[in-house]
Amino acid sequence: ATRTGPPPREVGTHCPYCALQCGMVLRDTDDGRTEVQPRQFPTNRGGLCQKGWTAADLLDHPDRLTTPLVRDPSGELRPASWQVALDRIADGLRTVQRTHGRDAVAVFGGGGLTNEKAYALGKFARVALRTRHIDYNGRWCMSSAAAAGLRAFGVDRGLPFPLTDLGRTDTLLLVGANPAETMPPLMRHVTDQRARGGRLIVVDPRLTATARQADLHLQPLPGTDLAVANALLHIALTEGLIDRDYVAARTEGFDAVRRTVAEYWPAEVERLSGIPVADLEATARALGTAASAIILTARGAEQHAKGVDTVSAYVNLALALGLPGRPHSGYGCLTGQGNGQGGREHGQKADQLPGYRKIDDPAARAHVAGVWGVDPAELPGPGVPAYQLLDSLGTPDGPRALLVFGSNPVVSAPRAARVESRLRGLDLLVVADFLRSETAELADVVLPVAQWAEEDGTMTNLEGRVLRRRALREPPPGVRTDLAVLADLAARLDDTDPVPAGPGTGPAGAADGPAPVTTPERFPTDPRVVFAELRRASAGGVADYAGVSWERIESADGVFWPCPDPDGPDSPRLFADTFPTPTGRARFHAVRHRPAAEPVCADYPLHFTTGRVLAQYQSGTQTRRVDALRRAAPHGFVELHPDLAARLGVDDGDEVRVASRRGELRAPARLSPTIRPDTVFAPFHWPGAARANSVTNDALDPVSGMPEFKICAVRVERA
Ligand code: SF4
Asked: What spans are recorded as compositionally biased (Low complexity) (predicted)?
């Protein structure tokens, strides 16, 4: 990237993309470029993937937005001043709320926003807009693991131990996780583990880059991970591998689980999943006889309408073997987005307030309202999960205006064509981004905001480690930070004219009454000031940041939450002595396999599943614009087994059509013997004809609201 503006300098920071948050140095060079160099950090140990290496390429990209865009009467997005753009938004929000009630405005956030921005966005929704409708795209990332972890352990932290423990565990079981492609530097820890004689077992319907390195690859039918876990626990019980002392002393609810898994005979599960009994037995023994073992799940296991129960099945297995809290052992979830962990701790979620507090808990409401300087009765109640929210937009009872920060649901939402039509039906759509995403293309107003290397802040990685993101430079002229945008909007909404609760408010909405004071002081633009407030708001909560300061983060390799005391220790490892549940014990949950929400049939005879490729990230808004990444992964594709391709008369490279009951995608076929012949796969990074989420199912997990991204029924034919 070519540098303009400030003199050459360098900062130690972290990659803008995934939850590994690799350490890197960002440096302006004498010849006017900005370069990235990896730096030693415990998660990446000096490594970066190609996305990290090319992260600076977007800083001065020609597609960079540097002026607000406002849709004119002819339907075109045209450059406008900030005053015009913000006035248009404020007028639109006020009109919608006065006509339809406060809940007629919704906010949609992102798992890539810093902790400060996630916190400010939740506060803005509840204090400035007083709407209950806020949720974020992290709902589609790890919400199933979050819910399962919370109900078992009383806390949701992706990894309750440092990532370095992977390198020292004897048996590592990865379920629906492909870090060799999604987080390549993580594999350095796995390489260590293997070098020490450790065993790696991977459960995945595809022979992925990670599965290729495994001692044992279990290749189940998509959607059968839960049954596989119950069979593993069945075998562990039969073979006497259960840690009975641990179960008796540190858990509750095991009897119901024991009765349930007794039904999961390995031979039955072999018929259901396709995994041979011998492999199930080898896996159970590798876990149950090891001195240390770690079980990790990721999106493959979690993005199902039974995602919470699937994760609970693996948590049950970990608890029965006595793993959580034991050295170099336990259960964990590989969170995906850069701040997927922090993003869910500070109030972006429909049901949560900062500190990972429940929004319907009176004590939590009182604490947070006190920090925000409002009456607890003024705080709205819980909203609805992300997909439900998007699917209600523009409907008679749904919101009529939406503010989107750091997300691109036109590409990333399930059943995306339907979401797109909902967005088109809004009275007002506002998108804050630094590039014109597919969602921004539909907006009435687009606000150009700062990107990663242009602002300070904190991120919380997949280990629950709070990190410092450091600015290398100021935002370019015409660009504002998200915090400044929220402050500007809050100031415009700050009037004494009360907005009625109105017909769209619903039973959970806030009481009618005067609008709260939303002075600029209430929405500070300095991230350091926001973080100080966030610490107070989180104090005493599950995710307690009260003892975390920017100085403390900088004096070490980050700070692990909970950290309630500035002078006390942080918490790299959880559960050594107790679990943060009312009884101090972890809780088993008996769970049963159930079929996919949409079984295959004569018309749609194949299973469809989605995932990522190494060179692209999420909806691709950023990585599709980086030359090196575009060359490495230029377009979408459909992966299918050669036997299936032969039956369909498809050759490698032929364009194929994948159709479900909801829509279709078209992309070149990529033939590979690494996938099951009854399953096809497509990556979800591309819009347009290759949009994988045109096909996916919007069936939701009843607990987490996670859509069933990972399995639906399709037919495939040559296009
Ligand atoms: Fe960035 Fe993730 Fe790649 Fe590390 S693994 S360089 S954090 S995208």
From this structure: 508-520
